[in-house]
Amino acid sequence: MIEKADQIFVLLQHWLVSFLPAGLQPVAGVLLSVVVIVCLFPALFALAVWMERKGLGRIQNRLGPNRVGPFGLLQPIADGIKSLTKEDIVPRSADAAVHFLAPVVLVVTVFMGFAVLPMGRNMVLADMDAGLLFYFAMGASTELAVFMAGWSSRNKYSLLGAMRAVAQMISYEVVLLLSSVAVVMITGSLSLTKIVEAQNHYSWGLPHWYIFTPWGCAGFVMYAIAATAETNRSPFDLPEGESELVAGYHTEYSGFKFALFFLGEYLAMFSISGLGTTLFLGGWSAPFSWLGWVPSWIWFFSKLMLSIFVFIWMRGTLPRLRQDQLMNFAWKFVLPMCLLNLLVAGLWRFMGDGWPRWVVCSAILVLAYVGMGWGEMRRKHFGARSYRYAE
Amino acid sequence: MLGEGILKGLAETARNFAGSFVSAERLTTVQYPEQRIAPIEATRDFPFLVYDGKDWEAGMRCVACQICEKECPPKCIYIVKSTDKKPDALGKMQIYPTRFDIDISVCMSCQICVEVCPFEAIKMDTEFELSTTDRFGGLLLDRKQLSKSNEHYHRIHPTEAAEVDARLAGEKAKSDAKAKAATAAAAAKAAAAPASSAAAPSPAATDAAPAASAALAETDVAPGGNGAGNPAVGPADGESRA
Asked: Which pLDDT belongs to residue B19?
């Protein structure tokens, strides 16, 4: 029974596909999974938008949307209808083909990332040996879509937003990759299912998730920072900073194309949270061994939604960074920490079991963090802002 | 330490998030169409014309002096003066506006018309639910739509309206006294002319005479209804002229 609940979607897929002739079954199975992913995550997107608006409202002591449906739950549907019925404007001087393709490319590449995410036991669309590599290849091509949007709009704000986005995403892509490399070093595999399985065992009822190791914890924090920057979320939402750039690279988009960008942003958030969950939070494994009877996909999606909530929480808390602060932070602080983390992961791997590796690895990371933090803060001047005017 | 501020900030927003569910005073939202809060007394948005008594047309205080029209910075007031006169709420003959339009889509709620009006005829309203499907005609209010009773004024701005009423009553009392003195002086003169100079004028008439002549002199220099002029000319003077 428990086994059935855990595998319910896999069994359902097999049952549905079994109606077809044997030759078509593999293709049909894949198509079915694709359809489910393509329907499920936009539905989750609607829920996340509602959560975000409600959550931000509460953080600011407001109610959030509460007019459409009970607790405003139908608000995303109203928003969807609104964006569908809006006029789709293409600027006269825009490159119409690229302008049209940009949101499509964005959404498609983001969706591709979901193919390799294990969303439950045996629930992965394409169990690639180099799943992580595939994921990062797809994640990196969203930059192309963003730049296509900014360039084809022929609008200075769009272009500035796109330039910022590309600069930011490339910088943080490095951090994102290097923080994940530590996981690959320890697991010895690029396959995401293998990475989850490596974390899916328990001692004294507690899981062996990578976040509970010194290098994993540091890696997770850096991964989270990079993920926030990679999805252009606050406080790294410079590419679409309303106060400076109207709406950044999607300034010239309206109607459903704008909705696609919006969808793409949230899907990227889901997929990057899903990957973070897989790499550091044990994927679909239960947080305690005695909770193993709960279906694995529930754990995956709970962790995903929890990450989304943290994203929302950060957005409600932190002000936007300046471009130079953003770049300095990536290259001068997070990247050196990432490289050090690789060293620590190596040490962890070769120091063998036992307490010494805990002490050594933690000490290195904490000292580096405190030391670099102290060094950075020492050079900063906090206090009244001074202005320098051109003469 | 680095990151300390972020944690503090996150704690603060978490406190807000949780607090808004448990403490009612955090959540200050008023669910507007269903719930309303009374506007504060200093609220103002668009001007309206005050009338005394029951009938808006008869009791309109405005005498079409057009000062507000000239002073209005965005020029949203349009007035056409009447060619005839009709009695106002006090029974005095006055010029009145045959048209008094305010385009509230142009009005910037600066209250200058209220400041310059010597007749206390235009005041600021608090009505804000003025949305309309017709953005031209629907936002161009004519004198009928603009006319609101003095009771309405008392309802929305009690303190201010009481001051205005007191001032108007004072001016009216003064002008009444002047008018009475003038009639008394006229009567005395009339009585004195046929009679021989042996009859001594009554003490009341002697006292009133200079006042009455002053009042008459003032009426001579006071500008008429076309007055782009002296804002110091009060309604009392207008009444004494009649």
From this structure: 86
